[in-house]
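Table S2 (continued). Query chain:
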Amino acid sequence: MCDRTEWCWPAPGGTLGFCTPKGAVPGRCCLSSLAYSCTTPTGFERCAGFDLKACRSRCAPHDCACQAACARLAARTPGGDPSQCTRAALDDHLCGTPAACAGTPDGTSCACDRDCASGNCHGGRCYAGTDGNPCDSDSECDSGNCFLYCCTSRTVGSPCAHDSSCASGNCNGGAEWGCGLQVCVGTCGSNAHGSGCWNDAECESGRCLGTNSTDFTGQGDCL
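Corresponding output:
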C-alpha cells in the first residue's frame, strides 16, 4: 500500500501495483514538443501512455510472461489524450524529442529478451545492445542507459532520466532533481568539486552543499 507521498501504478497480473514518489511537482506529459501538467496518475497515463519502461524494469531479464504482460498493458493505454491535464507551455523546453533510433535488427524474431543473444528484443525483432538501437529497458543496453527508448551513452553530456543512467551518477535535471512522474530530460554531468547536485550521492566526495531536496527550491554544489 502506497503512502500519501506516492502514486500507485498497476503491475503485470493486475492484482498488485508498485509505488513511485509523487515528487515536488505534478507529472509532466510531453506530446511531441508540447508539455502538459497532470495532477493524477489517471490523467498522466491517458496523456503519456502506460509506462512500459517502468513496468519492464520490474521484470527479470528472462521473464517472458512479465514482459508480455507489460506489453499488453501498454497496448491498452497508448496515451495521446491530454484532456485531463492542462497545458504547461513554460515546460515545453523540457520535452525531449526521441532521436531517430532505427537500429539494425539481426534478422532473428523474438517474443522476449531471452530469445536474443544480445538480450534485446524490441518489437518482435532482436537488436544489439549498442548505442543507437531501440530498447524498452536499461538492461537491454550495453551502456545501461535506455533513454526515450533508445540505447544511449552514459558519458558526460549524454541525455539521461536518472542518476543511475550516468557513469558519474549525476544526471543534471533528471528524476532526482524533482521532476516528478514525467519522463525527465537531463544531461549526464560531472560529480567533481563544483558540479551541480541535489543529493550527496551525486558527488564524488559524497557531499552536496547548499541544496534543498525537500521542496527543490535550491540546487547545491559538490564539495
